[in-house]
User: Fold DNA repair protein RecO from Escherichia coli.
Amino acid sequence: MEGWQRAFVLHSRPWSETSLMLDVFTEESGRVRLVAKGARSKRSTLKGALQPFTPLLLRFGGRGEVKTLRSAEAVSLALPLSGITLYSGLYINELLSRVLEYETRFSELFFDYLHCIQSLAGATGTPEPALRRFELALLGHLGYGVNFTHCAGSGEPVDDTMTYRYREEKGFIASVVIDNKTFTGRQLKALKPRGNFLTQTHYAPRNALPAWRLSRILAVNH
Assistant:
């Protein structure tokens, strides 16, 4: 793949005295491992650009699992993350590094990632809504999408006043037991994505805890 691609660095580490090993997330090729030769040298113009949260254009090639970086350009300065938003961004990067296979295309997920990082950079309050939306979107891209509007057992629309529990590979089924792993029908409807999942504005603070509980349950099951 020798053409230019939009990309973000997920992780980087020294590879030699003058080179870096990069784990990058690209628009067309998905997650890719690259060697950036000479990027650690004093004269390199790449060192400052090859950082997490910097929008990049990359060109790379090679036949093995580890590709060689040919060229790199920063599209803009790094998105301004600091404190809790920086830790949140690093968490998202680690999540992608753990669940995405190399060289598997996830173009829509790439833009969900971009929207998430932009949301974190512009956050004036808690980063939790952006994190929960991204976690659920990621599960959907991996094939674990959730039906928030219908009971998996009966096929009927969920009832606002009833309680439901998530069952792996099935979905939400009615439950007579109420605990921290159950949700009301009203909560499920509030968690249902509307339009572009990462840019929706309906994600009210009252839904943050149910979304956090759901993301933890789904992560354990998948």
